[in-house]
Design a protein that fits this description.
The longest helix has 39 residues. With 270 residues, the protein is α+β, with helices and mostly antiparallel strands. The protein is 54% helix and 8% strand. The chain has three domains: 71 residues, no CATH class; 43 residues; 140 residues, no CATH class. It has ten helices and four strands. Strands 1-4-2-3 form a four-stranded mixed beta sheet, with helices on one face.
Length: 270
């Protein structure tokens, strides 16, 4: 009766078993139900698409982008579908190239987005007033400069950074507060693996000062276990800007920053 295409309930009615119960289940064990009794599943159409794409030699990644199921589900659906040797070779060649191209495109899109954000932000800054430069210089020094400590008073003004634009900003600020160029001494701090003479030429052009105004570079020894990112032709070390006879100026900077901090608190309280 089962093989003739009858459902379980039809067989139970024909045999007078009511709902069928356990005996009917044992009798029908191993005998497949007729196709017409099987409930349609929501993913049957997706499975057919996946199977057709796999038969064409598509990769799991390509198929998942179309059908949108998990990799585990896809493996279950396609485990019995083999690929011809030429299809396997095509996937082997296409896989790395496609991945590399996709990554390159993603990097390009991200780079364009970052450039757009920077350009928009740059456009918001027009001419810089002296008061704005003054605040920028004080904050920059408080972040990167040498400051007085409870155990070390009379600290001279020393500012070190690896960014040429930050160094130029600080030099402009020093000029604003009345520090003449002849009071400045420059020192390069750089790893021993870099080309020191090239770094001296680079920073000399940045600060527009002769190499004679530079003291002997501080050479940092390389630790073999450290993986450094600051390498290559773009690495020029850090530049220290030292101001002679500047202990009083350092105290003034401290007071200026305290004043800025207090004014900021006043704004927040409004």
């Amino acid at each position: 009766m089962r093989l003739a295409g009858m459902s379980r309930s039809q067989i139970a009615d024909a045999l007078g078993l009511g709902s069928g119960g356990e005996p009917l289940g044992r009798w029908l064990q191993g005998v497949p139900a007729p196709a017409w009794t099987r409930r349609p599943r929501a993913k049957d159409d997706l499975r057919k698409i996946a199977e057709a794409m796999r038969a064409e030699g598509r990769s799991y990644r390509e198929i998942r982008e179309v059908v949108g199921v998990s990799k585990g589900t896809l493996s279950l659906w396609l485990r019995d579908i083999g690929l011809a040797e030429d299809q396997r070779r095509a996937l082997t060649v296409r896989g790395p190239e496609a991945t590399s191209a996709r990554h390159a495109e993603n990097r390009a899109v991200a780079a364009r987005r970052r450039a757009d954000v920077r350009a928009q932000a740059r456009g918001q800054i027009e001419a810089l007033s002296e008061s704005e430069l003054f605040v920028a210089g004080v904050v920059a020094y408080w972040a990167e400069g040498a400051k007085n400590k409870p155990w070390r008073h009379e600290q001279s003004v020393k500012f070190m950074n690896s960014d040429p634009t930050m160094i130029r900003l600080f030099l402009s600020w020093l000029q604003l507060v009345g520090v003449s160029r002849d009071r400045l001494i420059f020192r390069i701090h750089i790893h021993e693996t870099a080309e020191v003479s090239a770094a001296v030429r680079f920073w000399s052009e940045v600060v527009e000062a002769p190499e004679s105004q530079f003291s002997r570079p501080t050479i940092k020894t390389h630790k073999p276990l450290t993986v450094r990112k600051n390498v290559g032709l773009d690495y020029h070390g850090c530049l220290l800007v030292y101001v002679r006879n500047s202990a009083t100026l350092n105290l003034q900077i401290e007071g200026w920053f305290e004043g800025l901090a207090a004014a900021t608190q006043g704004l927040a309280a409004r």
